[in-house]
Amino acid sequence: MKEKLKKRSLAENIYIGLAGIFLGCLLVQFLLAGMSVFDDPAKWGIHKIFVHIFGYTIPVLMIISSLIGKFFRVVYRDLAAVFLLIFLMYLTANVGWKVGWLGALHPVLGVLLIATTSAGMVKIYKNPALTVEGERRKEPSKEFGLFNWILLGAFGGFIVGILLSNIVGIISVVLFDVPMGIKFLPFYLAFLSSIIVPLWMGRRKG
Fold first, then answer.
1. Rounded distance, CA 206 to CA 92, Å?
2. CA 124 to chain centre
3. Could you give the CA distance from residue 167 to residue 131 in angstroms, rounded to a whole number?
């Protein structure tokens, strides 16, 4: 029996491309950190600013592409691990100056972040959802459930809130030389998304 040739969807290709860009940005971060230690300490400033540009932005776009491509259930564990590692990297970067062993974990978490992102990218690269005949990969039969959609909505809203806060802060510093933003914006968006996402998914199923 002739084996079916597999074909990736546009959303899957976008996901792979975003993951590749994210990995490239992580390598640039390692390069900037190395340059700041061995060449010019001023590179620490670029290292700190650059992460705000891609840190949460690209993973959020990866979530969106996986939802559009209907393969979120295949990679949600990998994406959850990515966001957890990003949070821990921010934590160790900010607290590491006071607690030495936490600061020492910062580059280790960076290596784990590269490995986790690569694992999710390879998973979609090697196992596309579509074949040339248009048959879809079998997805887990377990129903996602209302509570899970509430958690996903809250988590997504919180991440988008952080992303928007960073963007507004960067723009305000560039334009007005003063950091500006909306206080508790991530929590407001988390609350709204925990309501909107389950309602929206309920309407789709209905």
1. 44
2. 16
3. 39
Decide: residue 69, CB within 10 A, 0-12 exposed, 13-18 middle, 19+ buried.
Answer: buried
Residue-level pLDDT at 63: 86
β-strand partners of 6: 131
Reduced to 3 states, what is the DSSP secondary structure of residue 131?
strand
Alpha-helix residue ranges (DSSP H) falling in the chain: 10-38, 43-54, 57-68, 72-95, 100-126, 146-176, 185-205
Q: Which pair of tokens denotes residue 191? A: 């609350």
Residue 56: what pLDDT? 77
Mean pLDDT by 10 residues, the chain (206 residues): 60 90 91 83 79 81 84 86 86 77 84 91 78 45 63 76 75 76 79 84 67
Side chain identity at 166, as an amino acid letter?
A: N
Query: CA 54, 57, 63, 69 torsion: positive or negative?
Result: negative
Tokens of 185: 């914006």
pTM beyond 0.90, yes or no: no
CA distance 186 to 90: 16
